[in-house]
TrEMBL record:
Coiled coil: none annotated. This is Protease HtpX. It comes from Kushneria avicenniae. Zn(2+) binds at residues 145, 149, 225. Keywords: Cell membrane, Hydrolase, Membrane, Metal-binding, Metalloprotease, Protease, Stress response, Transmembrane, Transmembrane helix, Zinc. Residues 79-296 form the Peptidase M48 domain. Belongs to the peptidase M48B family. It is a multi-pass membrane protein. GO terms for molecular function: metalloendopeptidase activity; zinc ion binding. It is found in: Cell membrane.
Amino acid sequence: MMRIVLFLATNLAVVLVASITLRLLGVESYLAGSGLNLTSLLIFCFVFGMVGSLVSLLLSKKMAKWSTKAQIIDRPSNANEQWLYDTVAELSRDAGIKMPEVGIFPAQQANAFATGWNKNDALVCVSAGLLNQMRPEEVRAVLGHEIGHVANGDMVTLSLIQGVLNTFVMFFARVAAQLIDSFLRRDDDGGGLGFMGYFAVVMALEVVFGLVASIIVAWFSRYREYRADEAGARLAGSGAMINALARLKAQQEMPDQMPDSLTAFAITTGQTRKLMEKLFASHPPLDDRIAALKKAAYQQ
C-alpha cells in the first residue's frame, strides 16, 4: 500500500510540475482563451487514466484464474502438487512475503506467471508443461523468478506506470488538438477543426502518443525481468536459473499459449527477431537474460 501511495504522490507532483510549466510557457493562458482549463483537464485525465489500470490490477487474480483455467492448489492431492506447494511456501518465506496462492494451468508450453494487486495477496501459477519438462531444480528457479516479481512489487509498479502514461497520453493529445484548433481558428477566420475534426485529431494523437507510452512500459517490463531473474538465481541458484532459461529457449519456436492479458507477466513470450518487435517486447531475448546471469555469477 505504501508503494501505491508514494507512487501516486510522486506522479501527482509530476502532474503539478507539468501544469506549472505550461503556465510559465504561456500555453495555459493561450488555451484558456479558447475555453480549455488545463488544471481541470489534468485532473480529468489523471482520474480516467488511472482508473482502468487500478481496476485491472485489483481484478488481476480473478481474471488470470479464469483466462488460464488454472487449478488452484488449496489442498495438495498428490506428491507433485505437495512439492510445488511446499516449494512456493519455502521461497516465499525466504523472500519475506506472505504465501501466495499456487496454481497449475493446462498448457503444454513450459511457462509460469505471477499476478496480484499486493505482494501479500498474489497468485503464482505454472503450466503443466513446465512441470513435465523441467527438472525440480529448474522448476524451483522459475518459481523463484515469479516470487521475485511478487516481492519486487512489479505488478503494482507496472500498472501504476501504465496509468500515469495513460494520463499523459490523454492530456497531451487534447492539448495538442486544442492548439491546432486554435491556430486554425486564427488563420481561417473562425473555422477551426470542428467537432468531428477535433475528435479525429485527438484519436490520432492518442495513437501516436500511446505508441511512445507502450515503448516506455515495455522497457520497464524488460528491466523487471532481469531483476526477477536475479531473484530466481538468488533463491534457487544461478546454475538452475540459467538452465531453466536455456530450456525455455529450446521451445521458443512454439506458439505462445498464454492469454494476451498475461503475456507481460509470463516468464517467457517466445522469440523476437525484428528491431520493432524488440522495442515493444515485454521480455528481453532469452540469450541476453542468460548472458546477464552468467556475467553476474562470474563477477561474484
